[in-house]
Amino acid sequence: MSLKYILPVLAASQAVFAASDCGDTKIKTQSDADGINSCSTVKGDVKIDESYSGTLQLSGVEKITGGLICSGGANVSSISADSLTTVGKAFDLEGLTTLTLLDFPQLDSVGSINWEALPKLQSLSFAKGVTKAGDVSIANTGLNDLNGITLKTVGTFSIQNNRDLRTININNLQNATDLISFSGNYDTLEVDLPNLGTGTNMTFQNISSVSLPSLEKLTGQLGFWGTKFETFSAPNLTQTGDLVFKDNSELSNISMPVLKTVDGGFTIARDDKLSAISLPALQRVNGAIDFSGTFNKLSLGALKDVEGSFNMQSTRGNFSCDDLRKLKNDNVIKGNFKCDATNANPTTSKGGSGTSSSDSSSETSSGAAFMTGANVPVVGLAALFGALAQLL
């Protein structure tokens, strides 16, 4: 057979061989990874075995229809994929305790991100930026920032226990369809979500600043616990579900000038530097109002309907309980009513202390079942191992 016939036959047989190798792939060595480098698309999962050691390079693969997964690969030091644009399902890395590099210059779309216990990973090399992801959960890593994650929309966005994470700035994020949660990260974490307009639930704990200038509506909870910021401003927020500010030791100003509706309970407690509460546009609270603390000024001039109970207690209030009692008499307030403007030991409606100088209480909420960042724990052995590794 002449060479002109042999070469096409060899090429065809090589293509068939490559195509047969472009499904689910388990990588134990770099040779296994090299075996799929001729596949522009891997139709299935790429799983990195926990026994893998050293650097891993995927060259030539542009799309993985399944997940890119590694669990327990304690000796994987780096993962790079110079051509990969898409991971169809989970980008799931857990317990890679020596991983220092993720280099994915073309990656822009993933089904979801779940990274847990990556204590040596300090930054991301995602030059193009990930703009599409369903859910994102990042916990117990060494990341200093989330540069390279440039989402436009997201489902759950959970950032927990990343002790070196100092800044989060996701300029493109406009909508979140599930929980956004920040808890247990660097104690002066700055969160900037300048274009987020709508969402569901948002909880913030252990942060030093938060910027939500475009936020207009949340269908679920907005909550702040144990933060270090002095001012919270939501200039465009008109509606939210449960709303809570609790144990924010530096908070001195809350500005929500166009907030009209709280579709749940509204709690302010133990924010000792907050001297004034002004909600000029607030008309309707579908749960309870429960304010306790050291504030001396109160403005609820537009209030028309409170479906739940009403508890207003302060150590040095300069507001009139008689005016508020009139709201009860006029049936604006439908539930139980209590007001004390000069109570040395103000309490929440459930009996918890209203100031941090008072005795502490395990009571966590009033008028609604609130979910804090602390109640969204990172679970699993990988999380525990990662947390321990960060201390070493």
From TrEMBL:
Main location: secreted
Residues annotated as signal peptide: 1-18
Gene Ontology biological process terms in this record: fungal-type cell wall organization
Record's keyword terms, sorted: Cell wall, Glycoprotein, Secreted, Signal
Pfam families: Ecm33 (PF12454), LRR_5 (PF13306)
Skewed-composition ranges (Low complexity): 347-366
Subcellular location: Secreted, Cell wall
UniProt feature coiled coil, ranges: none
One GO location term (cellular component): cell surface
Region annotation Disordered: where it falls in the sequence: 343-366
Domain of life, per lineage: Eukaryota
Protein name: Protein ecm33
Biological classification of the source: Eukaryota, Fungi, Dikarya, Ascomycota, Pezizomycotina
